[in-house]
Amino acid sequence: MELKRVQEIASASLSTGTIPADYIRQENEQPGMTTFKGQHPEVPVIDFANEKLLAEMIFDASCKWGVFQVVNHGIPIEVINRLQKAGQEFFELPKEEREIYAKSPGDSKSVEGYGTKLQKEIEGKKGWVDHLFNKIWPPSAIDYRFWPRNPPDYREATEEYSRHLHKVVDKLLRSLSLGLGLEGHELKDAVGGNDLVFNLKINYYPPCPCPDLVLGVPSHTDMSALTILVPNEVQGLQAFQDGHWVDVNYIPNALVVHIGDQIEILSNGRCKSMLHRSTVNKDKTRMSWPVFVEPPADHHVGPHHKLINEQNPSKYKTKKFSDYCYCKLNKISQ
Ligand SMILES: O=C(O)CCC(=O)C(=O)O
Ligand SMILES: [Fe+2]
Question: What residues does the Fe2OG dioxygenase domain cover (predicted)?
Answer without folding.
Answer: 193-295
